[in-house]
Amino acid sequence: MPVSPRPHILMSADALGGVWPYSLDLARALAQRGLGVTVAVLGPAPAPERAAAAAAATGARILPTGLPLDWTAGRPEEVRAAAAALARLAGEIGADLVHLHAPALALADFPVPVVAVCHSCVATWWEACGAGPMPADLSWRAHLAAEGCRAADALLAPTEAFAAATARAYGLAQAPRVVRNGRDGPAAGPEREPAAHAFTAGRLWDGAKNAAALDRMAARLPCPVLAAGPVAGPNGARVDLAHLRLLGRLDEAGIAAQLAGRPVFVSLARYEPFGLAVLEAAGAGSALVLSDIPSFRELWDGAALFVDAEDDAAAAGAVAGLMAEPARRAALGEAARVRAARYGVAAMAEGVLAVFRGLLADGSAGRSAA
User: Is the pLDDT of residue 114 over 90?
Assistant: First the structure.
């Protein structure tokens, strides 16, 4: 299949979590490098003004589809139908390559090469957060993800740790190629005193984020612990938190405003394939207190304090220690900021583009679904 002088990329996206800023940053970087980009949004659509702002900021076409997300769909057939709809869309808009945010969406007869990103998945999530046999409602989703991993022309993962976990979970002969996620830090602003509180952000309802341990940690601290993010999820999950100071869901500007004060940032996640919130905090110069899990060690070893994910006492001690030692806190925040500069949008885009170029040069075409 001939490739146009200005290749057009169809990207799928989920507007509910960290996939959204990843998708917009990548779309903007691809558009700046001369590619045409259409972002097909699955699941709940962003508000019209939010979609318009995303289009203006990225130079991409933002296209809400109404198609279900793989993790909220009620039946396997819904996911396969969504994949088929994306394959049709790729043909209709003349895409040269498709970039999917979930491997299960690769299960269709796409007319062009398909790159699927392993942002997270139920099999590795259950391995980290579940107990006993995987429930049937998760099992079929893991089956589809395994099929999709084999159907895609290329697989990406954001860390070596998660690439290895994905290959192990699905019995892949080759682990996904690692292209680290990226975000750019804020422009330097006026110097100000660091905030006298700790901060966390994420989908608090998700057991992987371990908000219960953060809540126990907050009960041990004299300083407030502010938490941004929803406590109820679209899948019915909910968490009740008594000691965190809840801020609700904040937009990008709201998160940036919180991080401008360089609060001590805490994540006690049991499972985190990458952690964009951690990267944003590090880019702002916040000192980091993180759970000692493989992905965090890979990214932040030497630039963060690490504690066991369930040890709220150790986490509280780490936060209190940093509050009591301003020089140490400042040094750790600067180490985090320097490390974060490695994980910028340009580096992410170049890594993704290297994969795109290889597939487009090979002239790979659509595959039949497994």
Answer: yes
In the predicted model, what is the mean pLDDT of residues 293-302?
A: 98
Question: What secondary structure does DSSP assign to 86-125, as a single string?
Answer: HHHHHHHHT-SEEEESSGGGG-S--SS-EEEE-S--HHHH
CA 226 – CA 271 distance, rounded (Å): 21
Mean pLDDT over 288-293 rounds to 98
Structural domains for the chain: 8-181+345-362 (3.40.50.2000), 198-340 (3.40.50.2000)
Structure tokens at 324: 């009591």
Q: Which two tokens stand for residue 337?
A: 């900021």
**Region of poorest pLDDT, from 83-87, 107-111, 250-254, 314-318:** 250-254
Question: Are the C-beta atoms of 208 and 190 separated by less than 8 Å?
Answer: no
Task: Name residues whose C-beta falls within 8 Å of residue 366's C-beta, 6 or more positions apart in sequence.
Answer: 87, 109, 110, 111, 112
For β-strands 154-157 and 97-100, DSSP reports them as unpaired
Give the helix/strand (H/E) hosting 52: helix 48-58
Distance, CA of 204 to CA of 200 (rounded, Å): 9
Per-residue pLDDT at 234: 75
* pLDDT score for 16: 83
* Number of neighbours of residue 331 by Cβ within 10 angstroms: 12
